[in-house]
Design brief:
The protein is mainly α. It has 16 helices and two strands.
């Protein structure tokens, strides 16, 4: 409300009543928005197990849908691979890969749990030695403080959480199976839902843009994370350290968390080295080499391969990590960037929400691809 409106309302009762109604409507809109956000946040927290599994299933489905479409066009002599056969093969392959990875992770967690308990005293002594480098009086204080922490209870809790991985994997496989079963009729359902082919085509263009960018991000991130995990494995084997396999897997997983994941992985690498080697200088060398590996692959190779696929604000990434980490825990931190990219692309196509896309983008330019490129991609996917 401008000063001119207030002055005019003071001399015109009808105008004053109109402005009062406008202000009341705005206040009601804000209250309804706060209530809606609170309800959505409550549902996100309460149903996070199902929602996390659903988001992972959508990502896996989007990663393989284009490949299935390409395979369905192949011909072997006079025999053509049908869509349902390609979909069944994809679901079976996804199920086998997920169950295998779950079994590997669970076995590695069990190995770490049983072995870590024997290294507890050595770990406490190693951390106390590091504190003594800064202040001799701090060694006893740090050691006493760490021993007061129930390390075994935390490790047991972590092992119990890893046991839930199998249940989540089964749910993801079911979601992916139903998505492949419905994919053939998605465009028809979208047109019937919107009652407008132009609007349905526009929504399909937005979905296609999200899928292309998120898939590129995940493929690059997977390759860089795998290379980082392999380098950490070689590094630990070269120095004769234990836990090379678990640390490689942990590094691979943590590298999916932008910015902070690689830092946490390298700190854990340094702590594992400090516990196992007698000389702090050797542990420091391993820590420095691990940091160089993380820097080269994460800060040099990763941006080169990523290109323009992830033009999101660094500050926005930190906020997204904090929000989804608070709502969905560690899994939310893994999914924070794909969700943020999807939100930014959707907002960039909605005029009223475009300021949100501008704030989330790195350079204030949320448009990822030109219309011609998207149209070509949609035509190829529809063939």
């Amino acid at each position: 409300m401008t000063p001119h409106d207030i002055e005019h309302a003071a001399t015109d009762p009808a105008e004053a009543q109109k402005l009062s109604l406008v202000e009341r409507y705005r206040l009601q809109t804000w209250f309804l928005g706060i209530i809606a956000f609170s309800m959505i946040l409550f549902l996100l927290v309460q149903a996070r197990f199902i929602l996390i599994s659903l988001v992972i299933a959508i990502i896996l489905f989007s990663l393989t849908a284009d490949a299935i479409t390409a395979f369905s066009r192949l011909r072997i002599g006079s025999w053509k691979i049908t869509n349902w056969l390609a979909s069944m093969a994809a679901v079976t392959l996804i199920a086998v890969v997920l169950l295998t990875l779950s079994a590997i992770v669970i076995s590695q967690v069990n190995t770490v749990v049983t072995t870590t308990l024997t290294y507890t005293d050595q770990a406490i002594a190693a951390i106390a030695r590091v504190a003594a480098l800064f202040s001799p009086e701090a060694e006893a204080t740090v050691e006493t403080s760490i021993r007061s922490i129930q390390v075994s209870s935390y490790i047991t809790t972590a092992a119990g959480q890893a046991g839930n991985l199998l249940s989540a994997t089964t749910l993801v496989i079911l979601f992916v199976g139903f998505m492949f079963a419905e994919r053939l009729w998605f465009n028809t359902k979208l047109e019937n839902l919107m009652h407008d082919k132009t609007q349905a085509h526009r929504i399909g263009r937005i979905i296609h843009s999200i899928v292309r960018r998120v898939n590129h991000y995940l493929l690059v991130k997977t390759g860089v994370s795998a290379a980082t995990g392999a380098a950490v494995y070689v590094l630990m084997e070269a120095f004769g350290l234990e836990f090379a396999g678990p640390m490689a897997i942990l590094t691979f997983v943590l590298n999916y968390i932008p910015s902070v994941g690689s830092i946490i992985a390298n700190i854990l690498l340094g702590l594992v080295a400090l516990v196992q080697v007698p000389e702090p200088a050797t542990a420091l060398l391993i820590f420095v080499i691990g940091g160089m590996i993380q820097f080269m692959l994460g800060s040099v190779i990763d941006p080169m391969l990523m290109g323009r696929a992830l033009r999101v604000s660094s500050f926005g990434i930190i906020i997204s990590l904090a929000f989804w980490g608070a709502v969905w825990g560690i899994a939310g931190m893994f999914l924070a960037v794909p969700i943020m990219v999807a939100i930014m692309i959707v907002c960039s196509h909605i005029p009223s929400a475009r300021p949100v896309a501008v704030l989330l983008s790195r350079e204030g330019l949320p448009d990822f691809e030109d219309e011609a490129e998207i149209e070509v991609g949609l035509r190829q996917a529809a063939q």
